[in-house]
Amino acid sequence: MTALAKIVHTAPEIEAEPDLTDGFHLVIDALKLNGIATIYGVPGIPITDLGRMAQAAGMRVVSFRHEQHAGNAAAIAGFLTQKPGICLTVSAPGFLNGLTALANATTNCFPMILISGSSEREIVDLQQGDYEEMDQLAIAKPLCKAAFRVLHAADIGIGVARAIRAACSGRPGGIYLDLPAKLFSQVMEAEAGRTSLVKVIDPAPAQRPAPEAITRALDVLKSARRPLIVLGKGAAYAQADDAIRALVETSGIPYVPMSMAKGLLPDTHPLSAGAARSTALKDSDVVLLIGARLNWLLSHGKGKSWGEPGSTKFIQIDIEPREMDSNVEIVAPVVGDIASCVQALLEGMGQGWQQPPADWIDTLKTKREANIAKMAPKLMSNASPMTFHAALGALRTIVKERPDAILVNEGANTLDLARGIIDMYQPRKRLDVGTWGIMGIGMGFAVAAAIETGKPVLCVEGDSAFGFSGMEVETICRYGLPICIVVFNNNGIYRGTDSDPTGRDPGTTVFVKDSRYDKMIEAFGGDGYHVTSPDELTRAVNAAMDSGRPSLVNAVIDPAAGSESGNIGSLNPQSGIKKKA
């Protein structure tokens, strides 16, 4: 053996460096493993690089101008897809901005995960004054369905999995996931990191109702003379569209859709009692609630909106048992997921089901037709400036001609009147403020609707509501989304005619007179339109929708046309002090 051979033979083998990964990549890999392809957020310390890396890894990262709107986008993405929408924010103030959307998602039962970077635990716990120091987990817990913190890179897979399952299972809701800054730079072997990830299996398993609950509900329905079905947004979220339609048509029971359930069956369906809502609620003797809660939107199931106390029996389908009896007695609670419960009711009806008495159907039909006829002249006016009714009448026709478009709607009069005037024809095509009735959801919902569905979006906003998220028109233009925003501009909140009795300032509800919101979108490269009549509005919206470009229509509404809080003015307390004559 040569000397060189001896050296080679006896030299120690050099081990290869193991492949490594870090917290950044593990978060991205965990999301992708679970089929999450889009992140909504606002970049900044300490999550800027996470967004960059997610984009490089093929995820779609949509950056907003404000975290609340990114959070609203994530929330409605969850509603539309049944997968948790992801909102990514910076620490402290950014986290707080996203928290409103997280709480709203929880209230509305939208699956959403708010992921926020945070300051280091050891500094936060000693209150030593770290950059944007805040105990974010403690703040988030009361306002969401669940909250988790991950401290070690090896636990990222479990943390993401727990957040996904919590967001989707049972009654969906908002989840907070706290990721301290130094977690992202933690390094571990790539193979160990890969095996630490968790693919969530069946995150929202079916929860089938008890057979006796179905029998009880059907017995109550059989006893009804004036039955009614109320469809809530939970029914729309369930995506059990065919089964729900079959239940309505097989039972022959008229139905009233809550606003985000409109389109589960077309609003023009012969069993739709939406245009006779007051009569339907007040005179019904048995009400089947499907994905609807007896909250303020249904007058808590009592009061003047309903008949005499105790005259209405309620059957309720809900996945959350604690929802039952929340305001009034539920005589037939049906606990389970909506698809399973509706299917069980259908099977229980069988071939011999007796449909409701004809006089009940005829009563609602007569009332519906009378209300539609009474409303018609208001919708057909072409006066300038426009009333809310005339402007919505024009949009009503456009939506009818474009049933595949998604309608986003918020405001006071703009929201309340549109709910009743604009008919919907397909499920999950109407998105609005939901249970809390908050302002500011418009641009976030519109962006997510366009991205998640690929459909054109018509976003109808009151001028007050638009002010909460109007800067996001830059986001819409930056991503080139097919969104047409219509701002109903009546120079103020409710009306633009208030004044300051002292003469010092504008009235508290008054905005700059004759504002040109259309110029805002033009500044970012979108298309602006300024209209003063329903005919002009129709032409502008059709042109905008046909173009597929970011567009904003400034629709001039008579400043005196609105009413206080639209249809819920009674919620504004009045002063108890009587002025002297």
Task: Outline the structure in words.
It is a single chain. The protein is of the alpha/beta class and 581 residues long. The protein folds into three domains: 177 residues, 3-Layer(aba) Sandwich (Rossmann fold), CATH 3.40.50.970; 140 residues, Rossmann fold; 185 residues, 3-Layer(aba) Sandwich (Rossmann fold), CATH 3.40.50. Helices cover 39% and strands 16% of the residues. The protein has 22 helices and 19 strands. It has a six-stranded parallel beta sheet, sandwiched between helices. The chain has a six-stranded parallel beta sheet with strand order 15-14-16-17-19-18, with helices on both faces. A five-stranded parallel beta sheet has the order 10-9-11-12-13, sandwiched between helices. Helix 12 packs parallel to helix 14. The longest helix is centred in the middle third of the chain and has 23 residues. It is globular. The N terminus is likely disordered.
CATH homologous superfamily identity of the largest domain: Thiamin diphosphate (ThDP)-binding fold, Pyr/PP domains
- Beta-strand content bin: 15-25%
Helix count, DSSP H or I runs of 4 or more residues:
22
Termini gap: 122 Å
Number of E-type strands:
19
Shape: globular
User: Major beta sheet, specifics?
Assistant: 6 strands, parallel
Mean pLDDT: 94
Low-confidence stretches: 1-11
Estimated structural class? alpha/beta
CATH topology of the largest domain: Rossmann fold
